[in-house]
Write a structure and sequence with these properties.
The complex is a heterotrimer of chains A (477), B (95) and C (487). Chain A is an alpha+beta fold. Chain A has helices at 53-65, 163-180, 220-239, 285-294, 299-310, 314-321, 324-337, 340-358, 369-380, 386-398, 403-410, 418-431, 433-440, 447-457, 464-476, and strands at residues 3-14, 73-74, 77-80, 90-93, 103-108, 114-126, 130-136, 139-143, 150-156, 192-202, 212-217, 248-252, 257-260, 273-274, 281-282. Chain B has a domain at 5-42. Chain B has 3 helices and 2 strands. The chains are: A alpha+beta (477), B mainly alpha (95), C alpha/beta (487).
């Protein structure tokens, strides 16, 4: 039996406002418990919500970035349920009239093709607090610092066909929200959280299978693993003649499994109704146009511009443009060294490897765009070879010096004096008669041996092209 | 719409209220009489009438994104039933 | 002097006949003497009152006094007062020391008013008799066997028994106007949103509105000047500056078009109430007004719609009382569910629990459209009826209540009988209109007690000044508002 998986993602993004959605409390991460929970956040009797304009603007920005319909009238509703981290006993969300309606997101697939994924809606809502289950003599501690933090819940259509597509979708979303500056997208700190609706069906079926909702997936890697695991679990059940139960399941990253959340099984009836403490928000054309004017160049547009302006390959342009910070860094490097292809390689390969290793974001790169541009400029003007450049790069990681300073102090300047190179070549030929014989008798592979010997003698500084030409001439003679 | 005692038990659960067996019948009777009063609405045709949630159909005013609050934890927790290390304590929450 | 109006006291203070401290002591003495009987106050803030009075006298000495400077007032215990017990009439909040001030409290403090204390009320403002208070029933000064009305019953009794000069109240379905009518007082509910709800403990958010309970329309206007105005902390407060509500008090009523609701007269109104209404209409005609019968074809549905919308909103508003961050928590909960259920079941009284259950039912899956949406549709029909009516008339006049004050315990058996007390008042909350109840007659009870009758004047959206003007003119030509209970 061939099975296919159908996935829809619900992504909660914490909006990067200074204050909460409905109160003037700070949302700084990592504050001591309940020091950022004011009388409204604690649902003290008589307190009222007043909405943060920045949260609305950020939601509209996102809507425009995904070509979505913007709700001209958005209405907040109360979603009623009891939980100790939900102080009011209801969550304020948007049910029937979300700020962002239908939109779409283009994702890149592994085979290099692209796919457009539908976004059903994105609505503004408030976050809950945190329950801490560490030992308080068998009690649970409640921290309400996070309660009331503005969230944008972005709901995709069930159009993702496998775990890899789900990850690609999530990464694209991550890229866009960071481009827009509406969230830091930090999954480890919970500012981007993902719930996955997963179902399986026989290939070719048009009806969707019964789905489960997997919660608590807090990294790109776990999204892939959790979905793979859940799809397998469902297929096993069906193949064993069982039926899938529609339920909420929790992903346990340590055990790589999902398990049923019994506490959520009690049939819930959220009794949504329009929040009477908040009047409808009406958004006019002028507001939308003002927000549109603030939109930055988005990943797709940037990628296309990099292809046409810098003649990068689609792939390279895509990699660089996936992060606004990387793209900005790249353009700064190009401006200095005037070589886009080299810049793209150095930024997306060499520098990225260092960042990955040191677990750094590019905005905290140990080598600034200016220094990297200076290094590439010396490759471009042939002061150093690409190989020597790696040495300089390593040295730059260890110091604050510029490429020029390192090249000068370590004497790494490339030898381009043809007399000096000729002398090197002569010596190598004289010292290795056996290999010369081999080469001349047609064993051309030995050529690399001469290059190696000459480079070694020059301590890597000989200009490789000149060396190549001279060596070929002399060996032929 | 006639109300059964089981309906009352269901909504009491949603509202996290105890209705003990002794009162259940009385509560059901009283709520039924309230629903009877309410049900007078059902005789009116309201097709195509837009619901009115606020008397003036007004729109929302927003506030600028500013942090206006300072830490008042100690003061605010003075009136809490149970706290420890700055946290509100509740019986164990089972996930 | 404690029986005078705010306007009169303000003049006495200005002329130096009495100081605010003396006046405040006078009221505090009266409270000490009579509150045990009336049970009007839950908390008396004696130290605060004397400090505020001294401050008011100092302000006056500097020549900076306003009309409310040094006037002793009382707040319904629904308004949060920082560091003062704020109970909302409930066991749930019987230990709740509010950590902040309601906007109304802040504004009246700023106006120099002296706060004598917090008045008794039906629990969470749910009731029409003030019998639903954790702190016990309140007695009506006209007949202490009778209720003062509710839910602002403590405020009404406090004003009527001269235990304060004026008091704040809140009105979700009639909770200012009905007790004012039962106690022979002036009770004013402004348009929805005219006064900030910040710090006013919510019952039904789209209906709740604060207002004064006073001895005259002029006093209500003076109080409104201090209470009203937009508030950045309440985004549903009306976004326009409050006018001077005293400015139009003396406008002539010549040419005023008064509407009388045909449906009200047809319903077999209590004979005494009807004759008081007819007498009042004659007074207005004498002042140059014309009377016209109008229709409010959906007004008979207002109680039904109200008892869906208010409990629905309340069911969510009261979810925050969960025993976690403040208020009552049951003893020794065995688990989370037990804590929620016992804290709420022990902390709330029966009427509150009933309304939570009705509201929860109206919002629950399968019933939402038939109840909640239907009620909001009826609400629009009712609002539209008023809009149409105000094309023909300037003000609508009718009874405030179907009867005079009833005996304590008389209507406790069936909640529906009690709900029908609100029949003339709730539609005005659904439509968000300003309305005032003023004394316009009295009737004798079987045991010979004189009981006040109130009539209600309803204005169009934001026509508070007009409503106060009409009420004031009536009071300039009648003396019902000056009649005092014996004793």
């Amino acid at each position: 039996m061939v099975w296919e998986t159908v996935i829809g993602l619900e992504v909660h993004v914490q909006l990067a406002t200074k204050s909460k959605l409905f109160s003037g409390s700070s949302i700084t991460f990592g504050a001591a418990p309940n020091t950022q929970a004011n009388i409204f956040d604690l649902a003290m009797p008589g307190t009222l919500p007043v909405m943060n304009e920045a949260a609305l603007r950020m939601a509209v920005k996102f809507g425009l970035a995904i070509d979505a319909e913007i709700g001209r009238k958005s209405v907040f509703d109360r979603k009623n349920y009891f939980y100790p981290d939900l102080p009011k006993g209801y969550q304020v969300s948007q049910l029937d009239f979300p700020t962002v309606g239908k939109g779409e997101l283009e994702i890149a697939l592994e085979d290099g093709s692209t796919k457009v994924v539908g976004i059903t809606r994105a609505h503004i809502e408030e976050d809950a607090g945190k329950s801490l289950h560490e030992d308080f003599q068998g009690l649970t501690g409640i921290d309400l610092n996070r309660a009331g933090t503005p969230l944008l819940e972005i709901v995709s259509e069930p159009e993702l066909a496998n775990a890899k597509e789900a990850v690609a979708y999530l990464k694209k979303l991550h890229s866009i929200i960071r481009y827009l500056g509406i969230s830091d997208g930090n999954m480890a700190q919970g500012s981007m959280r993902c719930d996955a609706n997963v179902s399986v069906r026989k290939k070719g079926d048009t009806e969707l299978g019964t789905r489960t909702e997997i919660k608590n997936i807090n990294s790109f890697r776990f999204v892939e693993k959790a979905i793979l695991h859940e799809a397998e679990r469902q297929i096993d059940i069906i193949e064993d003649g069982g039926r899938i139960v529609q339920e909420t399941r929790l992903y346990d990253a340590d055990k790589n499994e999902t398990r049923s959340m019994r506490s959520k099984e009690v049939a819930n009836d959220y009794r949504y109704f329009p929040e009477p403490d908040l009047l409808p928000i009406v958004i006019d054309e002028a507001y939308i146009e003002a927000v549109r004017a603030e939109l930055p160049e988005l990943p797709n547009a940037k990628r296309e511009r990099f292809v046409s302006q810098y003649e990068l390959s689609e792939y390279d342009a895509g990699v660089i443009a996936s992060s606004r910070q990387m793209a900005d860094f790249f353009e700064e490097v190009v401006a200095i060294c005037k070589d886009a292809k080299l810049s793209s390689n150095w930024v997306s390969v060499d520098l990225q490897a260092v960042l990955n290793k040191q677990d750094l974001e590019i905005e905290n790169s140990p080598i600034s765009a200016e220094r990297l541009g200076g290094l590439i400029a010396r490759i471009k003007d042939k002061t150093i070879s690409s190989k020597i450049a790696k040495t300089v790069f390593e040295a730059m990681l260890e110091s604050e010096q510029s490429a020029d300073e390192i090249i000068a102090s370590q004497g790494l300047k490339q030898v381009t004096d043809s007399g000096a190179i000729e002398k090197l070549v002569d010596e190598v030929i004289a010292n290795n008669p056996e290999q010369v014989e081999q080469y001349r008798s047609g064993k051309e592979k030995v050529f690399a041996f001469f290059i190696g010997q000459a480079m070694k003698a020059s301590r890597g500084k000989a200009n490789p092209e000149q060396l190549n030409t001279l060596l070929k001439q002399k060996l032929k003679a | 719409m006639a109300l059964e005692q089981s309906d009352v038990e269901k909504i009491a659960q949603l509202a996290r209220l105890d209705v003990d067996a002794n009162e259940a019948q009385e509560v059901t009777k009283r709520i039924s009489s309230i629903l009877e009063l309410i049900d007078q609405m059902q005789d009116v045709n309201t097709k195509n009438v837009a619901p009115l949630a606020h008397p003036f159909d007004a729109i929302q005013r927003l506030r600028p994104d500013e942090v206006t609050e300072t830490d008042q934890r100690e003061y605010l927790q003075a009136i809490a039933p149970a706290t420890q290390d700055g946290l509100y304590l509740v019986p164990k929450v089972i996930e | 002097m404690s029986d005078r109006t705010v306007a009169e006291l303000s003049r006495s203070l200005a002329q130096g006949e009495i100081s605010s401290v003396e006046l405040t002591r006078d009221y505090l003495d009266r409270i000490a003497q009579h509150n045990t009987l009336y049970n009007a106050y839950i908390t008396v803030t004696e130290d605060l009152a004397l400090a505020q009075a001294a401050q008011a006298d100092a302000v006056r000495a500097k020549g900076e006094a306003g009309p409310l400077t040094g006037i002793p007032i009382a707040h319904k215990d629904i308004f949060c007062m920082q560091d003062v017990l704020t109970t909302c009439g409930s066991k749930m909040l019987a230990n709740f020391i509010a950590p902040y001030n309601a906007t109304v409290v802040e504004k009246l403090n700023a106006a120099g008013a002296v706060t004598l204390g917090k008045t008794n009320m039906d629990e969470f403002a749910m009731g029409s008799s003030n019998e639903n208070s954790f702190f016990g029933a309140v007695r009506n000064p006209w007949d202490t066997e009778r209720v003062p009305g509710g839910s602002s019953g403590g405020s009404a009794t406090a004003v009527a028994a001269d235990l304060c000069a004026i008091a704040t109240g809140t009105d979700t379905g009639g909770s200012i106007r009905q007790p004012a009518a039962f106690c022979g007082l002036t009770g004013f509910k402004p348009s929805y949103g005219r006064i900030s709800r910040w710090g006013m403990i919510a019952y039904a958010s789209s209906l709740d509105q604060a207002g004064p309970i006073s001895k005259s329309a002029e006093d209500a206007a003076l109080m409104m000047n201090a209470m009203a105005g937009p508030d950045h902390r309440d985004s549903t407060s009306v976004d326009m500056p409050a006018p001077d509500f005293t400015a139009n008090l003396n406008d002539s009523l010549q040419g005023l078009r008064i509407g009388v609701v045909r449906q009200h007269l047809a319903e077999g109104l209590d004979a005494n109430v009807e004759s008081a209404l007819q007498d009042a209409l004659k007074v207005f005609e004498g002042l140059g007004a014309t009377i016209k019968e109008i229709d409010l074809p959906n007004s008979h549905l207002s109680v039904s719609a109200y008892y869906v919308i208010a409990p629905a909103e309340a069911s969510a508003n009261l979810s925050r009382y969960d025993g976690v961050r403040f208020g009552y928590r049951c003893e020794n909960p065995v688990n989370l569910e037990d804590m929620y259920k016992r804290s709420r079941s022990e902390g709330f009284g029966n009427e509150v629990k009933r309304r939570i259950l009705v509201g929860t039912y109206a919002l629950s899956a399968g019933y939402y459209d038939a109840y909640y949406i239907k009620a909001q549709q009826i609400r629009r029909l009712i609002k539209q009826d008023y809009i149409d009516a105000f094309k023909e008339v300037d003000v609508i006049i009718g009874p405030t209540t179907p009867n005079t004050a009833f005996k304590i315990g008389e209507k406790n058996d069936d909640p529906v009988t009690m709900y029908l007390e609100d029949i003339y008042t709730v539609s005005i909350n659904l439509a968000g209109l300003p309305a005032i109840s003023i004394p316009a007659g009295s009737s004798k009870s079987a045991d010979g007690k004189s009981l006040p009758i109130g009539i209600q004047l309803v204005g169009s959206d934001f026509a508070e000044a007009k409503v106060l003007n009409i009420a004031h003119q009536f009071q300039q030509h009648t003396d019902w508002h000056q009649q005092r209970p014996e004793g």
